[in-house]
Every structure is written in C-alpha cells, then in structure tokens.
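re: that chain from earlier
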Amino acid sequence: MNETMLKVLQGFLLIATLGGCSTTYEPRLSLPPAAFNRSIDATVEVHPFIASDELLSGHSTYGVVAEDYVNRPPSKLTQALTEQVVAELSAHHVFLKVSTYDVEPDLILTGRVERFFEHDRRKLWALVPYYSDKLASLFRVNTYRTNGEIRLTMMLLKPTGELVGSYMGRSTFNEDYTPNSEVRPGDRLNRALGQALAQIRDEMLADPALPKTRHTEAF
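^ sequence. v structure.
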C-alpha cells in the first residue's frame, strides 16, 4: 500500500471514529406545574408541528451546536417535539383529552417552530484545553459559554379550520459554565423548551374563549 492510499485510509478511519463518538440531541420536555387547577374543557387532536422556512433551509441554527453533537434533520426533530408536547399536555391534563387522532375532536392543535437552538463553545482564552483547564481550576472561572433560544407558536383551530387562538412561547439563555456530568449540551435547551411551552399553556388557560373545568380527584 503506497503512502497516499495509507493517508486516505487513515482519514476514513478518523472520520468513522469521530462519527462513532458523536451524541445525537433528542428533545426532552418537562412541563412545570400550572398555577391554575383546571383544564380546558375540550378534546384535542394534535397535528405534527412544522419548522419555519429559515430552519428548513439551513439559514437559522437548529438543535445543539456543540463538540461531538449531531442533530437530526429539522423535520425529524419537530416530529419528536410534537410527541413530547402530546405527552406533557396529556400528563398535566391541560385538556380533557389529548391525542394525535380523535374521531370527533373539539379542537385541533398545531404549531410552528421559529427558533430552536443551543450553541455551546469554549471561550477564546480556553481554546488550549490543558492549560485553560488548569487555569480554570486554579482561579475557579468558567471555560465555556452557551446561548440559545426557543420560540414556538401554537394554534388552536376548530375542526372546520377556523382559528380559535394563537399563542406564543419564548425562552432564551446566555450563560457561562464549566462542563460536568450533571448538565450536558442540550439540557439547557430542553429546560427552555419547557419554559416556552409553559407560557403557551398559561396563555391558553387564561383565554376566555376556551371553556374550563376544574381538576377532579381522578386527575
């Protein structure tokens, strides 16, 4: 085997090794408890959320941008996000019933993902890991910074397609940190996701156009 072929093979092995070490980001939604002890008196059919044109075209950052992290395509991530929203709205009894299919739903819930990203990176002075980690340990300073944003719009429609209400949730973060095993890339994005959905949930619960019922002991 000549030297050129050996270098090519080494390159492929390096790519395969790096690819094998990558972590795929998955949305994990945890909805904080509501301040209102009630549900919206309606059965809801949830339709798949869509990503904005900016996300689909690659003009806007999407998912987790961090060392050794990869993201599924926007359409796949929004599908996973839809599943998480259905599970959390159902678990917290925001509506009487939430599902992806209902024979005769009272309302249709759909949504659009406008912004959905977390960007984690080393600070400029910390780009040499060994020395920067030593300095960080000595002076107790953070070596990484992260920022991100969630912006969601959800719509409730009548089965006829008539708009009942539009609700928006947004959460941002901009933090310095030192990596540890407790909070990993994507965890802050998931936290922001829960905050954004909580805003939407509270807007819907406060909407006078939507009939409410108090929680029962069965919940």
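The beta strands are 23-24, 38-46, 50-51, 62-65, 69-70, 95-99, 107-122, 144-157, 163-177, 212-214.
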